[in-house]
Amino acid sequence: MRTALFALAAASLFATAVQAAPASYAIDPTHTFATFEIDHMGTTTNRARFDKKSGSVEFDKAGKSGKVEVSLDMASVNSGTPAFNKHLQSAEIFDAEKFPTAKFVSDKFVFDGDKLKEVTGQLTIKGQTHPVTFKANKFNCYENPMLQKRETCGGDFEATIDRTQWGVDYGMAYGFPKQVRVVLQIEAVKQ
C-alpha cells in the first residue's frame, strides 16, 4: 500500500512538472513585424520595417516566465523608398554589410497578476549590446483555426531607445533626435 501511494505521489509530481515546463514556439514571420520610427525635423515621422526576421519563444504560462529571441536581417530594411533603404543600410546608419544581423534576446517576462506587462532583455545592433525593456501593449494566446488549432501566442511590444548607444548617430548635427520608437509585433506557433 505504501509503495502504491509513493508511486501515485511520484507520478502526480512528475505530471505537474511536465505541465509546468515551458513550451517552445516558432515565430510566424507572416505575423511578426519589427518597425522603427524617428521624428523628422518636428514635421513628420520616418518609419521603416525589417522584412526578414526569425526567432523563437519559450513560454511557461503557469510559471509566468519566458524567453524570446528575434533576429533581424538588416539588409531587409524597408522604408518604402529604395534610395532611403540604401542609406539606412549604409555605413552611415546600420552598416548592414559589416553587421548583417540585429538581435533581441530577452531574459525576463514581467507580469502584473495574469497580464504580461513587459519583456526585458538585450538588444544588439552594429555589434553593440545594451539592455532594453519592451512594454507589452497586448499579449494573448489562442487556438489558431488556420493551423489545426495549434496554440499561438503573441503581442505588440514597444520601447523607445537612444540610438546613439548603438553607434547609430547619423543626423545628430542636423537636429535629428536620439530617440527612436521600436515596435515588435510577434506571433509564435507552439511546436
Structure description:
It contains 2 helices and 11 strands. With 191 residues, it is mostly beta strands. The chain has a single domain (22-190), classed as Lipocalin, CATH 2.40.128. It starts with a helix and ends with a strand. The longest helix has 19 residues, at 2-20. The chain has helices spanning 2-20, 82-89; strands at 23-27, 33-40, 44-50, 53-60, 65-73, 77-78, 101-112, 115-125, 128-144, 150-162, 179-190. It has an 8-stranded antiparallel barrel. Strand 2 (33-40) and strand 3 form a beta hairpin. Residues 1-20 form the signal peptide. It comes from Comamonas terrae.
Which features would summarize this protein structure in a list?
single chain, 191 residues, mainly beta, Lipocalin, 8-stranded antiparallel β-barrel, globular
Distance between the termini: 40 Å
Main beta-sheet strand count, sense and barrel state: 8 strands, antiparallel, barrel
Q: Major sheet: order of its strands?
A: 1-4-5-7-8-9-10-11
Q: What is the CATH architecture term?
A: Beta Barrel
Any idea of the CATH class? Mainly Beta
Percent of residues in beta strands = over 45%
Quick structural summary:
The protein is mainly beta. It has helices spanning 2-20, 82-89; strands at residues 23-27, 33-40, 44-50, 53-60, 65-73, 77-78, 101-112, 115-125, 128-144, 150-162, 179-190.
What is the topological layout?
Layout: H1 2-20, E1 23-27, E2 33-40, E3 44-50, E4 53-60, E5 65-73, E6 77-78, H2 82-89, E7 101-112, E8 115-125, E9 128-144, E10 150-162, E11 179-190
Antiparallel strand pairs: 1-4, 1-11, 2-3, 2-11, 3-6, 4-5, 5-7, 7-8, 8-9, 9-10, 10-11
Pfam family, one: YceI
Organism: Comamonas terrae
Protein name: YceI family protein
